[in-house]
Amino acid sequence: MWLHNRNTVLTVAFIKGVGMKSLGFSIVGGHDSPKGIMGIYVKTVFPNGQAFDDGTLKAGDEIIEINGISLDGMSHNETISIFKNIREGPVNIKVLRRK
Question: Which positions fall inside the PDZ domain (predicted)?
């Protein structure tokens, strides 16, 4: 029997700026996680945010890239800093969804 790789890579596009809704999701993980070295994952998608309205991003998706910056080996705080440093403009998030 052949096992097929059912992982999917998706790119989700948001925009930050004045008058825009929040991105609307929380993250967990990082190389400094209390649970051990792990990737950065979407923990929760909140109602009333861009992620909820778009409907693509799901809890459990692994965030592998933000605006072309690889999150491989990043800590939780480093990832938060990347998001916070994008004050205006596009936020393109590449995620890996395991099935």
Answer: 11-85
**pLDDT for 10-60, tens place per residue?**
999 999 999 999 999 999 999 988 887 899 999 999 999 999 999 999 999
For 3-14, what is the mean pLDDT?
A: 85
- Determine the Cα–Cα distance for residues 66 and 88; give it in Å rounded to an integer: 14
Please, which residues have CB within 8 angstroms of residue 14's CB and are 6 or more apart in sequence?
A: 23, 50, 51, 54, 90, 91, 92, 93
DSSP label at 31?
T
Residue ranges of domains in the chain: 7-98
